[in-house]
Amino acid sequence: MKVIVCKNYDEMSATAAGELSKQICEKPDSVLGLATGSTPEGMYACLVKDYQDGKLDFSKITTVNLDEYYPITPDNDQSYRYFMNYHLFSKVNINLANTNVPDGTAKDPDAFCADYEKLIDSLGGVDLQILGIGQNGHIGFNEPGDILYPNTHLTDLTDSTIKANARFFDSIDDVPKQALTMGIASIFKAKRIIIMASGKSKHDAIAKMLGETIETKCPATILKLHPNVTLICDEDAYNG
Ligand code: F6R
């Protein structure tokens, strides 16, 4: 795994945005795998700025997001669809029809997940996948446990994830208890993966991910098996 340690959050954001910009310029019809959460917000702001400065064209880009709470409606300001529209899609010239976020209103989540997996395949896989990492080592919402699931699936969120995400909701009771998420094999279909991390709270998970073992109780450790992964993190996440 290639590791890039940046001074701080802003440098991490600019570095990750630089990699995405390069991908978009080199292959204007790229399929980008995107993540939500606090970590990539600054990266999206850099991409929007590059677009406004005339450096980027999203018109042929397709996106596939990692995950979405379940159940949740797209107009809920805590939904990941809302997040993506707000931080990126509404601010660049992407065709909204080419943006894909798991559907938090799906009536039959299992059927939805099977279709999402087919969608990823029909796009020829993701060219560049952005990941964040949970304090507990989750990627997407592949949570620590005895087993990991390969394909897109409906999952229960762990108490630690519900607690970590409560900061975005009025109260912890409002945090959805489940999510739709790409599985490990879905993520591994990406040709290249960038995992981002910022802040001391991510240090333990990053240290485990860079350690020698692969453990289902720290799902990010499995990224060691992918041939093209870059960690872009700040000093706090790297050094603790
Ligand atoms: C979000 C996602 C999650 C987050 C992780 C870190 O789409 O897949 O795995 O990347 O929970 O979240 P933040 O960045 O808010 O610390």
Strand content: 15-25%
Number of domains: 1
Report the major sheet.
7 strands, parallel
Assign an overall shape.
Answer: globular
Give the ordered list of helices and strands.
EHEHEEHEHEEHEHEHEH
Distance between the termini: 19 Å
Q: What is the level 1 CATH name?
A: Alpha Beta
Question: Which whole number gives the mean pLDDT?
Answer: 97
DSSP strand count:
10
Helix coverage percent: 25-40%
Instruction: Give me the CATH fold name.
Output: Rossmann fold
Describe this structure in words.
The mean pLDDT is 97. The radius of gyration is 17 Å and the shape is globular. Strand 9, helix 7 (203-210) and strand 10 (229-234) form a beta-alpha-beta unit. The two termini are 19 Å apart. The longest helix is centred in the N-terminal third of the chain and has 18 residues, at 9-26. The protein contains 8 helices and 10 strands. It is α/β, with parallel strands linked by helices and 240 residues long. The protein has one domain: Rossmann fold.
